[in-house]
Amino acid sequence: MNKTLTLSYLKDLLTRAENSFHHEECATCENFLGFLTQLEIDGGPEIQAYLTEYKPPREQIHACLGCDPCPPGLLYAEYLQNQGEKP
Question: What is the pTM of this model?
């Protein structure tokens, strides 16, 4: 799907996501981690290696807290709508 997911673009997306977190728990939310998984799928080995530091231990992952709106979720949707291409 994505041929333009560079490390620079990935870092921009992650910064935008982290800056949008309403709660500390957002970093371990299933919505944000779903976004990370999509980025990992779309990226090459360099992207995949970089994302390992963002993955929490399994026992820390939790369901959505129900934030409305969910900023990381909105960023994920925007990414998918653009099919990974930087707007």
Answer: 0.83
